[in-house]
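REVIEWER CHECKLIST
Item 1: Sequence provided? yes
Item 2: Single chain? yes
Item 3: Sequence as submitted:
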Amino acid sequence: MTDPILLDMLTRIQRRHVLLMRRTMKSLANIVRAADPDALRTKRDGPDGWTPVEILCHLRDFNAIFHRRAQQTVAEDRPVLVTYDHEQMVIDHRYAEQDPYAVVEDMAAERERMAAFYQALTPDQLLRVAIHPDDGERPLYDFLMQVGHHDNDHIEQMTRVLAG
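Item 4: Structure as written out by the authors:
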């Protein structure tokens, strides 16, 4: 990496988004701790929508998926990533029956591993590309930025459901 502008941009993206992924994890933990335990299982985002515990399980599982994709992108040249049916995962993994407090604990541990992984990457590694079957070529820094945005979308959803 010799372009100083690109190097600075990648360094800022890395620093800010690793911090964001740690902060959104804290927000999720705070939401779960503050919520009525029954509301986590009974309130739903519309008639066919998810409960807060299902949202949380989705975030936990996709956190691990995002981490594996990042590791694969560093380890392989232009890997083709596997896609997942997030709606089917809710059923197959029995999200509705899971303990939200255990889910947060598991996710927090995996999130810290992922944050440390991203924090240790070089700018050249952040430029590595993977092929997403639906989205095409994507550089690793794009996956890094996706984590916080994905969390934020579901934090909004979860707080809206709990407030309703």
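Item 5: Key structural point noted by reviewer: The longest strand covers residues 129-132.
Item 6: Recommendation: ____
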